[in-house]
Every structure is written in structure tokens, then in C-alpha cells.
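Thread title: Can someone regenerate the structure for this chain?

I was given the following input by a collaborator and told the matching C-alpha cells would be attached. They weren't. Posting the sequence so someone can regenerate them.
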Amino acid sequence: MRKLIKIISLVLSVIILGTCVPAQVPAAVVTENESFAEPTGATASIVSIKAKKKKITLWYKSPGANNVAYEVRIRTGLEDWTTYETTRTKLTIKKLKRKKIYTVQVRGIKLIGDMLIYSNWSKERTVKVK
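Best answer:
Regenerated them for you:
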């Protein structure tokens, strides 16, 4: 329950501030009912990626309309993933390194009852920053 409150407060802060912050959301959902802990079959997909000078803008969509938030993760090479959480279907990631190739994935987060359900990660998409 504490994790749910922490995640909801993070989502509300994203809505109020209108910016994205690195997410501090657990990768898996732990619940009493194990049937809800598995990711859903429907995945969010990246519709478009535009690279500009030191930034990337992503547009993505989800097959379901019940998503309360999205997680976007990005990395360059084989480094660790950096995860962002947002409630919008467009995200601009700034302060990136020029001439680097980044890999991006997205997934949806649904709220069913009082549990957060994560979809599977989308296919990896790569983009080169200008």
C-alpha cells in the first residue's frame, strides 16, 4: 500500500508540474493476488521519434484507454536504463549527448482497483541525436 501511495503521489506531481522526472517506481508489482502481478498482454507502442539538437521527442500510444501513466526508458549502448514516468502520450527528453545513438522503450501502467498493473515493454527503437 505504501508503494501505491508513493507512485500515485509521483504521478500527481508529474501532472501538477508538467515535467517528467526519473521514476522511482518498482519494476514489478507485488500484490496479494498473484494473477494481477503478471504484465498484461497489450503493450504500448512508439508511434514517432524525432531527434533534435541534444534532445529526443517521443510520441506513443497504448491499445487500452485505461492507462493512468506511462514509463519510458532510454539508454545508450549497453549502459543501464534511465526511466521516466509521465501521464501524457508525448515526452521530450533533454540534455542528451550529441551524435550518440539511444535506445528507447515504453510501457503503460493501469490502475485496477487499488493495484497498478504494468504492460510489457514495447519493441526497442533506436534514434541518433543530432
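Confidence is low (pLDDT under 50) at residues 21-38.
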